[in-house]
Design goal:
472 residues; Arc Repressor Mutant, subunit A; single chain
Length: 472
């Protein structure tokens, strides 16, 4: 097929599967052109073909919409639950992380060490209104209502969101989870077994290390460039010498480095792993928090063999209170669905429905634009303050999205000593020790810049710089 015919067939399939319903608006011609890497004329030809087939219609000054037909097919039924299941019978990073999180809560400290974004800009009051309205009209829930894979309404909204961002997704592949943490754990459990070796970025987000530690696996840390991501060259060399069960990465706005892996490198990574038939577990929780003009691609975009297990959530972009995440596990979908059932049975129904209603009816994109703008401004402000107040030789990352800054201190500065001194002054930081299972990054810290700039934050950074100078 020609490019425009391929695009038209893809959109027609989205309509047939219920991702796009009658009356739904399609992404604009310009958006589709950018997300799919097609010319505007190609997109226009595809939309014209769909119009001629009666699948969509154009509305002046409004765009293109799925056509409402007089004798339309009924809406797709909720996805059926799977067949009955049969039950079958070296640095402690997690302890340090738990201690850090407790200090934030117990001491009322300046939360520069928090892994969570400032909740103030999140529209959780509006989501709560939806939840309350749903609770009033639906008083007789059963745990059977949303057995895995999850609530069909939310799954459709997630599929639509991916589609708008340039990644066509079959809703039947989506599995709703209790946040991205559960998604990551389930995907790792499906892709590897105790004793296996799992390749990770270095430094890497500690939730990845937690999952590996909990399942009795071994983490193999791969050098990671602060701009380009995991070293594909180093990974290729290792794969030629030893067996790796899976690779866990954060290609977009990695925590703690903040980079956006270039598209060519994403494609190369997926192709390398596919050549060895190795699954890639993609943590993409910061996908919506980009600073550029368009959404980044994901590893899933380049997956042709179902080997990318994509994990994400709404906790970093919409609300952390409800802890709703999802997985797109590719060829591992049936295994992850079974593990979800065995581990937690279901994800609570009410939060799923409330978020689905918000996504369908409210201004999610408007909310995200405001959040992104604030984060981008604060990233520059915090980086400038660190370079101003900290000792000579300090270096900082250049985040392309997200809300954390990675800071390299002079060699003589011990991040754990700085952590203890800062805590005495009610300031928290994320010591670099948390981001490696080998105890690396002893002179690094991670800082959270999601909170509005204030005198309190500036004073805290000034104090941290003074303390770091004393330790240098």
């Amino acid at each position: 097929m020609n490019l425009y015919e391929t695009l038209a067939a893809d959109i027609e399939g989205q309509v047939a599967r219920g991702v796009l319903l009658e009356g739904d608006k399609l992404p604009s011609v310009r958006q589709t052109s950018q997300h799919r890497g097609l010319s505007i004329s190609t997109v226009l030809r595809a939309y014209s073909l769909l119009e001629s087939k009666g699948i969509i219609e154009s509305r002046p000054q409004s765009g293109y919409f799925v056509r409402t037909r007089q004798s339309s097919m009924p809406r797709p039924a909720p996805l059926a639950a799977s067949a009955p299941l049969e039950l079958s019978s070296e640095v402690d990073v997690s302890r340090l992380v738990l201690s850090t999180l407790r200090t934030i809560r117990a001491h009322g400290a300046v939360p520069l060490g928090s892994p969570y974004p400032d909740p103030a800009p999140f529209p959780w009051p509006r989501i709560n209104q939806y939840a309350n309205a749903i609770a009033r009209r639906s008083q007789h829930w059963s745990v059977m209502d949303d057995l895995p894979p999850g609530n069909p309404q939310l799954m459709r909204q997630i599929a639509r969101r991916h589609l708008e961002n340039g990644l066509p997704v079959d809703p039947s592949e989506i599995i709703i989870t209790v946040g991205a943490t559960e998604a990551i754990n389930l995907c790792l459990q499906a892709a590897a077994k105790p004793g296996d070796t799992v390749a990770v970025e270095s430094p890497t987000f500690y939730a990845m290390l937690h999952a590996i530690e909990r399942m009795g696996m071994r983490a193999l840390e791969i050098p990671t460039d602060p701009r380009e991501g995991i070293s594909i060259e180093a990974l290729r060399s290792i794969l030629s010498q030893q067996r790796i069960a899976a690779c866990m990465v954060m290609p977009n706005f990695q925590n703690p480095l903040g980079f956006q892996m270039p598209d060519a490198r994403k494609r190369e990574l997926v192709e390398l792993l596919a050549s060895y038939d190795i699954p890639a577990i993609e943590n993409d929780v910061y996908h919506e928090l980009y600073y550029g003009d368009s959404h980044p691609t994901s590893l899933k975009t380049y997956d042709t063999k179902g080997l990318v297990l994509h994990c994400s959530s709404f906790s970093k972009s919409l609300t952390a209170n409800y802890r709703i995440g999802w997985a797109l596990p590719g060829r591992y979908t049936a295994q992850v669905e079974k593990l979800k059932f065995l581990n937690t049975l279901t994800t609570p129904t009410l939060p799923q429905m409330a978020i689905a209603d918000y996504l369908q009816n409210d201004g999610y994109d408007r909310h995200l634009r405001k959040v992104r703008k604030g984060y981008e401004q604060r990233a520059r402000m915090m980086a400038a303050a660190v370079l101003r107040f900290f000792p000579a030789g300090t270096r900082v990352s250049e985040p392309q999205g997200g809300y954390v800054l990675w800071v390299e201190l002079p060699q003589g500065v011990d991040a754990m000593k700085l952590y203890a001194l800062a805590l005495e002054r009610k300031i928290t930081i994320g010591p670099g020790h948390m981001f490696s299972a080998r105890g690396s990054y002893t002179n690094y810290i991670r800082l959270n810049y999601s909170y509005p700039w204030s005198k309190e934050i500036e004073d805290a950074l000034r104090m941290l710089g003074r303390l770091a100078g004393q330790l240098a």
